[in-house]
Design brief:
single chain, alpha+beta, 3 helices, 33% helix
Length: 70
């Protein structure tokens, strides 16, 4: 089973994919995730959706906190 991570940044949404299917079973996951190089070794950017404006970003953040998906 492939692991995908959806994260919100100040610029937009990023969809990341784990490079290793057994990523969550690793013992050194927390230590590896401490650096940008470590994260880069574990995850690959699959897609990025940029916010169209600051007001759109605020609307999306409000929708997420209310549990709404657009």
């Amino acid at each position: 089973m492939t692991l995908f991570i959806l994260t919100e940044t100040s610029a937009g949404y990023a969809l990341l994919k784990a490079k290793d299917k057994k990523l969550l079973k690793r013992d050194d996951l927390a230590k590896e995730a401490e650096t940008a190089e470590g994260i880069n070794g574990m995850l690959k950017l699959k897609q990025f959706k940029k916010f169209e404006s600051a007001s759109a970003a605020l609307e999306e953040a409000a929708a997420l906190t209310e549990g709404k998906v657009r």
